[in-house]
Amino acid sequence: MRHPGALPLERWGRDLLGRVQAAADRSQAGRYAFEFLMFGLKQGWACLFGGLMLALLLGTHFWWPEAAPLARYDFLVIGAILIQAAMLAFRLESLDEARVILLFHVAGTVMELFKTAAGSWIYPEPSLLRIGELPLFSGFMYAAVGSYIARIWRIFEMRFTHYPPLWTTWLLAAAIYMNFFAHHWIWDFRWLLFAATFLLFWRTRFWFTPDRVRRWMPVPLGFFLVALFIWLAENIGTYSQAWLYPGQEDGWSPVSLAKLGSWFLLMIISVVLVSLVNRPEAERSSG
After folding, report:
1. How many CA atoms lie within 13 A of 100 on its CB side?
2. Residue 67's pLDDT is what?
3. What are the CB-based long-range contacts (under 8 Å, 24+) for 188-196?
């Protein structure tokens, strides 16, 4: 099957997997196993930016020399820029996707500046490439989330049924972003935001193609599953001491499960930002 929207390296990968698929088609069990394999491979491919950033965090944590003339955080900034440049050069991301990822970077950096000033978390190591207490690599961690959402939208050929009016999602995303700041001074109204999310998206399904058959999942469940994986990645980030939450300064401990709620809400902002470039299209085959 041709995929006209795919980028060149992805088309090469699909051609290779097509040959594996032909072997799997010899049995029903083989077809299901291949579909599960494809789902995992596509997820991993969509996570390329984030996976490489996590590799940099762990690698520099274990092997960065103390006497290095370049600060670890500054190396992470340079590494993140090179990853982004390579993804554009090899056409693993389109220019439109890069623009929306830049929005993630800016929105994330602004929030990080506020949160670090408020003491929500700290970046314990020195560096030159920073704004105040904030090393510049931090914005790329949000860009990694944006990259994942933009790429998975294309790679899985995502379509929707019962997607709410766009203006309602924009208002919800704006309220969520505002609450990340406002809850430091007023009542944290995230529970109202959770309720508003389910009210808007409770009927919404996203359709995707792991292999050949179209599958669907409720959008709120998709938000939660992605938030869960981001929470796991955040545990890797704090284990590498790239940043630390209060209570982690004297020894690593798992990130609180309460953070899942924050990442769930961030997923809504993420999808809304990507929808500025990839407008949600209806799934025609769903009836």
Report:
1. 23
2. 87
3. 190/261, 190/262, 190/265, 193/265, 194/261, 194/264, 194/265, 196/172
Which pTM was predicted? 0.87
Residues 217 and 87: their CA atoms lie apart, in Å, by: 29
List the chain residues with pLDDT less than 70. 1-10, 13, 285-287
For residue 1, what pLDDT is reported?
A: 46
Please check whether residue 48 is in contact with residue 147, taking contact to mean a CB–CB distance below 8 angstroms.
yes
What pLDDT was estimated at residue 286? 54
